[in-house]
Amino acid sequence: MPRYDDGVPYTCPLIDDVIRLLKEIDKIGCEEIYSSEIASAISTMETIRKHNSALRDKAKDNYDELMSYHDNSRELEQQVRNLENENENLEDSVRDLEKTVAKLESELEQLQEG
To answer: Which of 17, 30, 38, 48 gives 20 to 30 Å between its CA and that of 66?
Structure first.
């Protein structure tokens, strides 16, 4: 089964960068940005990280489920092909038996006439 890849870059390193930057600003002590605002921003980024992780996990679960259905579908398609082949073989056998019955009926008629 192919490896899951949603093509979405991981945002946690970006969140870490923002948090580091906010902590640096807090250390510098910018008067225009208050510590409580920085703490709130950090908290918000952590919330985003948590939700992002949950979304990624759900997407992976959905992908795994889809791949399972895909594998099952392939197995069922193979079973259908096998049954179709078996059906064709049985139909050939029926035709052969019908010919044999017709031949035997013809021979029986000839014996009854003679």
So the answer is: 48
